[in-house]
Amino acid sequence: MSSRLLRFEDWTSPVPPVRREVLSALPHPDEGEPPLLFVPGLGHGGWAFREHWLGHVASRGFAAYALTPRERGSLRAYVHDVVQVAAGLPRQTVLVGHGTGALVVAHALARYPARAAVLAAPVLEGWPALGAALRANPFGTLPALFGGALKLNRKQLFGAEAPDAYAERLTPTPSAVARSLFTAPAPAAPAGSPPVLVVGSPDDRVVTRKALDRTAARYGGAPLLFPGMGHDLMLDAAWRDPIDAILDWLVKELADQRHSGS
């Protein structure tokens, strides 16, 4: 096994076990396609994907799973949970991370040889994202700099048409958890060189267009953009557009992999 996949600290200081919440939507019939594992960002749980994307993914023939982050975890613990859940699925998995969940996926890719990966509205650059949060939501962000909780708000995440119920479901993030993500080191190169797609919106109040360009360039491409959408692509009124584009890209990548025999 590659040394990148097995770390010394995993033996000397293992991540504490936890009961994980994994939501799912399964296709009928199962045509043997790789499953998709969705990883939410700060303040969100698996519910954010269950609202629209999980069922839609299943309707297109892919098994879909969404992992809710453990309470009071850390980047290392979140990565551990993603790798463990992915390794427990019946087929080599496609990892899809949103927001800081994309950061978790980027780090998990160095530990788990994913079939492919999608980074949606990715927060891979902590300090620029923190600066954007301070501008868009100073009262919810400042407390996190002094030991309080980080509280995201509707303006940061949603378009005008999003139901109020979405904002009401957001959970405060403890300062230590937010700090572990915003100060995270750059992720290592993915194991196995899977194809990686970056998607986002130029109108995102959390992730700038330049940050999207830099993240996509890191993985050898350009971002797929959806103008007019907010940060939470999966909860936007136009939620169907990005997930259909993601699945269309994935279908093409899988066909190319089969043609090349990989």
Brief sketch in words of this structure:
With 262 residues, the chain is an alpha/beta fold. Helix content is 39%, strand content 12%. It has one domain: Alpha/Beta hydrolase fold, catalytic domain (Rossmann fold, 3-Layer(aba) Sandwich), CATH 3.40.50.
Q: Can you describe what's shown?
A:
This protein has 262 residues and is an alpha/beta fold. It has one domain: Alpha/Beta hydrolase fold, catalytic domain (Rossmann fold, 3-Layer(aba) Sandwich). It contains 12 helices and 7 strands. Helix 4 crosses helix 5.
Brief descriptors of the model:
single chain, alpha/beta, Rossmann fold, 7-stranded mixed sheet, 12 helices, 7 strands, 39% helix
